[in-house]
Specification:
Length: about 500
């Protein structure tokens, strides 16, 4: 029976091909049925509504087929996870090949308890939302190596890190670039009811801080008590089996690497601090908020962040290699640059198919139409209080499966949802908190998320079994986190609402 089940397991590449076919057929059916919704938009000058009819675009048509053939290649080339992953892996290759990560992670995991390592990784993953989607590219590979050199199954680190990145995507006590855009949208919607309304940028500090700690603890518990037992037995590689002894070479390498890294970080930090002599060179000074100066589309920091991180990794690994004499010449250095790219062919095929699926799915606008329908449902529901909160939470949970983009979802929902909640006695800040908490529940369960393919790719890269890790298996790993996140975050929301606690500094939950 097990052999039959293994043979029936779809390789993730084949799963994405199947999803493309399903999307094409589904778009044709929904288009023929006239599946559409009305999206409400707010004029920023007049604060009046304008409407737009959203319809499903039919891929099973001449125009749709033309789109598939003309956009697939260009979309793959521009697919953010592809270029970012390749560049980051160059830097990681130097750190791994030089022995820096082996030495560093072996020391850390030897001194720390297993639960502490997992909790620290998850907490960093949640907080990493401040750097946006690039956190997936950076943290997932590092998490795998952390557990590999800690003599544990690397898949534990991959699964836990991805859970932290997705379930905690909307949780941050530090204002992120995404939060800044969402707040602007919320403020515009709030001014439909109260033209003088203002939103505090740190108005959700308290609820976010508590939720981050609780969620990190929950994900750690699920990982160690449930996920670890579900994974196959992991055999530690021979070169990692024996305890790493730190000799003079390794110590010298760490010191030199640390010194070079500190110098680089100081130079980098100086260039993102505004107001000092010759500082702030990486910022977009046309923006008002500091977070927007960092992450706006015109910011040097935002556009070059992947390269900045890669150079950091290269410097750290190179100077460790020089100090420990694991990198003796330019050939060793070049070999290290390509180390993490060895055997990446299957990953590139997987990313290509994932990019093709996401491209065609976005073209259909199925997610946008669904979210617009949910926004109208909330407007006409007549609910108030806790039933209204639960309704929004559940609909956002469902919406995220089909439209993971926070900004896209909120731009459709906010014009209707925020006024409805204000009339029901709930502040725009709290409404946005409900939205952000809810979308994290299913963020890790949808292949429509561009960075889901990175999660799948690394699960397969470190898979000890001969059979591939399928999309459904990858989702099964994340389902306990999704269920736990839904329960705990909804409970926090309801308690906060009933108690009428302040969300943060200058922020309130109930008007």
């Amino acid at each position: 029976m097990k052999k039959i089940k293994d043979k029936m397991t779809l390789h993730p590449v084949m799963s994405f091909i199947l999803l493309i076919g399903v999307t094409i057929v589904l778009s044709a059916i929904l288009s023929l049925l006239g599946f559409q919704s009305t999206q409400y938009k707010i004029n920023a000058n007049t604060l009046d509504y304008s409407t737009e009819i959203l319809k499903v675009s039919n891929l099973f048509s001449l125009q749709g087929i033309k789109y598939i053939f003309t956009s697939t290649v260009s979309n793959f080339v521009a697919f953010a996870p592809l270029s970012s992953l390749i560049i980051v892996l160059i830097g990681l290759g130097v750190m791994e090949k030089s022995g820096l990560l082996k030495t560093l992670f072996a020391i850390l995991t030897k001194k720390m308890k297993k639960n502490t390592v997992t909790f620290t990784l998850v907490l960093i993953s949640i907080i990493a939302s401040i750097i946006g989607d690039l956190s997936y590219i950076i943290i997932i590979p590092i998490a795998a190596l952390l557990y590999k050199y800690g003599k544990r199954n690397p898949k534990i680190g991959i699964i836990a890190a991805f859970a932290g990145l997705t379930c905690g995507a909307g949780l941050s006590f530090i204002l992120t670039s995404t939060d800044s855009v969402l707040l602007s949208t919320s403020l515009l919607a709030a001014q439909m009811i109260d033209k003088g309304y203002r939103i505090a940028t740190i108005g959700t500090l308290f609820i976010m801080f508590i939720s981050v700690i609780i969620l990190a603890t929950l994900i750690t518990w699920i990982t160690e008590k449930y996920i670890v037992d579900k994974l196959e037995k992991y055999e530690v590689e021979d070169d990692i089996e024996n305890d790493l002894s730190i000799g003079r070479k390794e110590l010298r390498g760490l010191i030199i690497s640390g010194f070079a890294t500190v110098i680089y970080v100081i130079i980098f930090l100086y260039n993102i601090i505004p107001g000092l002599p010759f500082s702030g060179n990486l910022l977009d000074n046309s923006q008002i908020l500091y977070i927007d100066k960092l992450f706006s589309y015109n910011s040097f920091f935002s556009n070059g962040f992947v390269f900045i991180v890669t150079i950091l990794f290269v410097i750290a690994g190179l100077f460790y290699g020089i100090g420990s004499k694991t990198i003796k010449n330019n050939k060793d250095f070049v070999d290290a640059l390509g180390h993490s790219l060895d055997g990446i062919g299957k990953t590139l095929v997987l990313i290509f198919m994932a990019s093709a699926f996401i491209n065609v799915f976005k073209y259909t606008s199925i997610g946008n139409v669904m979210v617009a329908a949910f926004a109208n449902l909330i407007k006409t529901s007549g609910f108030v209080g806790i039933p209204l909160i639960i309704l929004l939470f559940v609909l956002v949970v469902i919406s995220t499966i089909f439209l993971p983009s926070s900004i896209s979802k909120w731009s459709i929902l906010a014009p209707l949802v925020v006024p409805v909640f204000m009339n029901a006695g709930v502040s725009p800040e709290f409404t946005q908190v409900i939205f952000r908490f809810a979308e994290g529940v299913t963020m890790g369960l949808t292949p429509v998320l561009a960075y889901f393919v990175i999660y799948i790719a690394f699960l397969n890269h470190y898979n000890a079994d001969k059979k591939p890790v399928s999309i459904t298996q990858a989702m099964k790993f994340q389902f306990p986190y999704a269920l736990g996140t839904a329960i705990i975050l909804l409970l926090i929301i309801i308690i906060w609402y009933i108690a009428g606690l302040p969300l943060g500094i200058n922020g309130v939950s109930v008007l």
